[in-house]
Amino acid sequence: MKKKHNYIATNLQVMKTVACVMLAFMVLSGCTKEDAIPSEPIPNLGGYKPAGNPTIDSWIKKNLTDPFNVTVKYQYDPFEVDFMKNTTPAKEEFVIPTMELVKQCMIEPYIKNSDSAFVKKIVPKLWVLVGSGQYNDDGTVVLGQAEGANKITLMDVNKYAKTKLFVQSSNHTVQHETAHILHQTRVYAPAFKYVNPEYYTTTWHNYTDKQAYNLGFVRNYAMASADEDFVETISYLLVYGQTAYDNLVKGSSEAGKNRLRVKEQLVIEYFKEKWNMDFRQLQADVQASIYNYIENQG
Fold first, then answer.
1. Which residue has the higher pLDDT, 22 or 234?
2. Single pTM value for the model
């Protein structure tokens, strides 16, 4: 045991000697060589902001920042999303078309039915664009997220296409997240939560949309919670229109029909009582804006 102990001690001494020599060499080297201090900021060390696209930045300033105090973050920042999930940056070519969709199909209809002061108050000040969706372990995909009435993240923007299907899908996400901001600011009637609370479930993705219709939901994701049910009902009515909603009701079960109509009426009352807005007029304006966007967007 003693020899072993001495052996260890001897090796420690050698290591200390080598370390001292190396330290002395480093000190001498540091004294005899002058390294130039970098003149450019080093990326990812804090305080670094990559250069933006002047054309995009100018458009954002003119159309969103100046009139509504809105900032758009389109350069990739993993800390703006769940950095444990794989996501991709938004392509610059899709930034302006995406935010034009937000402006034309959400902001402008709300201005028509309220005023610019309302929009300045209710529209989140930060919009984050992400190129891909955020895929979860259960196979579901996050396409958008609203945070504390101050930030909306729009994902999957790299799939942008000027088609009715994409524009409706994208605007559905925008209207969904905007509706979250509305009810986070002014709560909806408790009666909405009790239309069919027994069907709210964290395993909503195990149901088909058809099954959801028959239970009184506009789609399966609305079954996730009362809040999601509320904003999905709003978004569906605004984006797909009254005819589509009526057809959905017709194809539902008798119980589903009654629940869907009750929820529709509660949404109409919410906009009137909480925001003094005619929901039917807002619905018509959103429908017109979607049509005009598809027809005119270059």
1. 234
2. 0.77
